[in-house]
Each structure stands twice: as structure tokens, then as C-alpha cells.
Amino acid sequence: MAETKIQFNTQQRLFFQTLHKRVDQYFKTNGISKNGNSTMFVKTVCMFSIYFVPYFLMVFGVVTWIPAMALFAVMMGFGAAGIGLSVMHDANHGSYSNNPKVNKFIAYSINLIGGHYLNWQLQHNTLHHTFTNIHGHDHDIDTQGIMRFSPHTPHKKVHRFQFIYAWFLYGLMTLSWVMKKDFIQLSLFRKMGLLEMRKKKFSTELVRLIIWKIVYYIYMLVIPMLVMKAAWWQILIGFFIIHYTGGLLLALVFQPAHVTENLDFPLPDETGNMENDWAVHQLYTTSNYAPKAKLLSWFVGGLNFQVEHHLFPTICHVHYKKLAPIVQQTAEEFKYPYHSFPTFFQAIASHGRILKKFGSEPVVSL
After folding, report:
1. CB of 95 closer than 8 Å to CB of 315
2. Using one digit for the tens of pLDDT, what is the confidence trace for 101-118?
3. Residues 6+ apart with CB under 8 A from 132
4. pTM value?
């Protein structure tokens, strides 16, 4: 990990202890499980259908009209994003089912859409959820490129225009994972000691990664090029459309949850101590949006309730809407912030403004 070991404040535990008791009481009173329910099964079928039905219709020659195939590629992009947001995400947090084997099986669905199970867990579960918005520790905001998501990230001249070009680059996110980022991350996580922490051998994981990538490229590119009535370059364009659609959707869901005007980007002191407790830290660095948008919430796996997800990642997202009033009330009682944008577009607009701000402002001293 980063050189400085982060230590959260232990003097604010009463907030989370109180909140945890109230949330536990909610499930006990209603006699329901914290894991997924029948709606998760239905959603799983829907998301995989949106992704794989268009694929098989094209591969088996049922649909050969190029404009229709382009539309199907967009559908597959939505399906891939839906699998990642609404199915794989819960499974990787262990909240999809109360059976660990089921969670692990479903979690591997990220490999089917071009990602990598272990890399996702290390970047998302281990780093992002623990060190949310902390420069040098949360890799979701440390892009080390032409994007600047934190006031503590080194400033480049090109960042002045990121509020314009960011929206175009977001669509390339999953394509980057498929082609190179997974390999770069696996090597990085080895250097950080995260593989050793998980008792994983780099050589073994590299072989697994390569095998999964080969499987993915075979069914997504090789087979279509062999059997579909389309030119190879048309198939490559379709492949790009799938990833661009999925990548853009994923970015538009995750970015407004942590990179907006109302959120903090706190730093540890010289000894690694943070000002707040971990749970309180989540309140200062995370925001909800569009809490009344039922269809949006269904598609994005409840991640518009990002505050609830960060505080209770092992609780399935189907419960977040009911937990939100409990979290908000408790936060207000303890006089802590509870950030939430009324609509999705307000959150996106705020993200755009913070991109412009970070693109024009100098680095804030560490």
C-alpha cells in the first residue's frame, strides 16, 4: 500500500455503533435477511439476458442487419454495466447471498464481461471502500493520467480542459481494463503487498488472468468473426460500442458519488492519523443522488444510495432505500453531514463543475 499507514479516529465510534444497532433492529423487526431476495434473482436474469440474448441472436445469424446489430451492441453495453452494477457488485461484497460459494460464483461474472475478479476486489473493496477519497490510497481518484479527481493530485496544463474531454474518456474505461489495465493493476498490487495479504501468488493469478482474457476475446471477437455475416472491422466497431456504452454508464454512476462539490478529500496528518472515524469519513466523502428515481435505482444496483452502500457494503442493495431514512436521521442526530442530490442530473452537473474546478486550481499542499 501507500507508505503512510492510515489510522482512523477512534473517538467517534458511537455514531456507527448507534447506527449499526438501528439497522440490525430494522432487519430483526421485519424478519428479513440482509442478503438478496427474489428480486435479486429476477434482476440477475434480466441483466444477463440484456447482455447475452443480443449476442446469441447475432452469432446464430438471427439478426444480420448492420444497424440492428449496432443497436444490439448498445444493448450489450447496458447489459454489461447492469451485470457489473446490479449483480457482480453485490456478490463481490458478499451480500448477494448468505452462501459464500454462491457469492464467489456470481462475483466471477465480471470476468465474463472483460474484467478481473481479484483486481476488482482489491481496488474496490480493499482500497476504495477503506480509503475513500484519500489521495495516494484510493485508486479510484488517483488516475495518474490526464484526469484530476482530487485537489491533491499533481496539476497538468491539460487538466484545464478535463471538464470537456472527461465525458469522452469515461467511455474508454472498460476497454482499458480489457486491454491493459488488469495486467498493470495485478503487477501494482503485487508491489503493494496486496496479493501477499490475500495469500495469492502473482504467477498463478497472472496465468488465471491470461486464461480469462483469452476466453473473453474468443467468445467476443474470434467466434463472431468466424460465424457472423459481418466484416471483421464491423465486429471491432461493435466491440468498441459495447465497451464505450458500458464504460460511460459505469463512470456516470460512480463519479457523482464521490467527486462532486459537496464532498471532502481529507488527508492524514504526518503520522497517518485521520480526523474522523471510518464511518464518519464515509459521510464526508460520499453522496447519494436521485433517491426517488425507482427505475434508475433498479438498474444501477441501488448505488444512487451510495452512502448506505459505503456504510453497509455487506448488505444487499435491495434494502438501501429502506435504510436511507435511518442513516439520515442518525447522521443528523450526531450533527454529521448526509449528502444527497435530489436528481441524477444535479449530481452530474456538480461533477462537471468540480472537474472544471480541479482542472484550473493548483495543488493543495499535502
Report:
1. yes
2. 999 999 999 999 999 999
3. 138, 258, 281, 282, 285, 286, 310
4. 0.93
